[in-house]
Write a structure and sequence with these properties.
- The chain is α/β, with parallel strands linked by helices.
- The protein folds into two domains: 2-78 and 272-326, no CATH class; 85-268, no CATH class.
- The protein contains ten helices and eight strands.
- The strands form two sheets. It has a five-stranded mixed β-sheet with strand order 4-5-7-8-6, with helices on both faces. It has a three-stranded antiparallel β-sheet with strand order 1-3-2.
- The longest helix is centred in the last third of the chain and has 35 residues, at 274-308.
- The radius of gyration is 25 Å and the shape is elongated.
Length: 335
């Protein structure tokens, strides 16, 4: 742990050599200058865990990310299979999965990819670079049978739309999940499960004031093949693939070859892309402009504390977000 703290202190001290970099959290260098390697080297640096920092080309310039780019994990762990199931050797052998994703959310393509990977593990192996670093993972790709998956892509919906339980699409999602859960339970118990008539216990709002919604919930839209909450159709190649509009009408989902989430080059899976990096830089610029002074103060304090050393707990390494991992030697913990 002491060695890790020393490395982190050195990184922060190096960042302070460029006062602006210590504030904005990244270095920018024109890709046509400096000692930059070929394009392959630049792309490799965009894979987390392959170097001290992440490097990605944005608008013709090399951006070396210093600060944490992900909200929930460190940069070094972005390529860890427990952070994204897309990097698991296989998602076969799991219980039946229902994956609901919003057509307007940032994680849409990843969730579509994960659904297809679970149903066809051998067709969606992790990048070769990942397999080289984890030799045992190669044998796991075909170790389990495909998982049966119901994938529903809901038009225009946001992330975790069911949490907005008062909305019409969320209520349709609940109906769909109830039907899938009953099917999965019946399959496991090998007997039929009786489902109550949903309209008898829960009524979806029939207001016509919302976007001109038709009051007839049973009328299918043109081209629709069913409604959310209908009995499950047969699985094809271990999948039920559906596109659902916000009124609960079900349509056929385009073939995997037409979906961006399934056509990304294999070696780009798990690497940082210019688009997300650009959005992160824009949002961070606003934050750092407002809190630049406070951020410098925190960075200087961290360098000082790292130099003094942190408490060690019997060989344990607390996660970066844990207060226990930032207890300075010889000082009482703050209450």
């Amino acid at each position: 742990m002491e060695a890790l703290a020393t490395q982190q202190a050195e990184k922060l001290k190096n960042a302070h050599g460029n006062d602006r970099a210590s504030v904005v959290g990244y270095h920018v260098q024109d890709s046509s200058t400096g000692n930059q390697g070929p394009a392959a080297t630049t792309r490799l640096a965009s894979v987390p865990g392959k170097g001290p920092n992440i490097s990605v080309e944005v608008d013709g310039k090399i951006v070396e990310v210093i600060d944490q780019i992900h909200m929930y994990t460190t940069n070094a762990l972005l390529s860890h299979p427990l952070v994204s199931p897309a990097l698991q050797p296989s998602l076969g052998g799991l219980p039946p999965l229902q994956i609901l994703t919003g057509g307007g959310e940032i994680l849409r393509d990843e969730q579509i990819y994960v659904a297809h990977k679970a149903a066809n593990p051998s067709h969606y192996p992790p990048p070769e670079a990942f397999l080289k670093d984890n030799p045992l993972a190669r044998n796991q790709i075909n170790a389990w049978k495909p998982t049966v998956v119901q994938l529903q892509v809901w038009d225009d919906l946001c992330h975790v739309a069911p949490t907005l339980s008062f909305t019409r699409p969320a209520k349709h999602m609940y109906r769909s999940t109830a039907q899938f859960s009953a099917w999965a339970l019946a399959r496991a118990q090998k007997r039929e499960i009786e489902i109550l008539d949903d309209d008898a216990v829960s009524v979806i709002s029939r207001s016509t004031s919302e976007d001109g919604v038709s009051p007839d919930e049973n009328t299918l839209a043109k081209g629709a093949v069913g409604k959310a909450g209908d009995p499950l159709p047969p699985f094809k190649h271990h999948m039920i693939r559906q596109r659902v509009d916000r009124h609960g009408n079900i349509f056929e989902l385009p073939h995997a070859s037409e979906l961006a989430g399934c056509t990304m080059p294999r070696e780009e899976i798990g690497s940082v892309k210019p688009g997300p990096a650009r959005r992160w830089m824009a949002a961070k610029a606003k934050f750092d402009q407002r809190f630049a002074r406070e951020k410098r103060k925190v960075q200087r304090r961290r360098v000082r504390e790292m130099g003094e050393g942190y408490e060690v707990f019997g060989g344990e390494v607390p996660p970066p977000s844990a207060m226990a991992g930032r207890r300075v030697k010889g000082k009482e913990a703050a209450e």
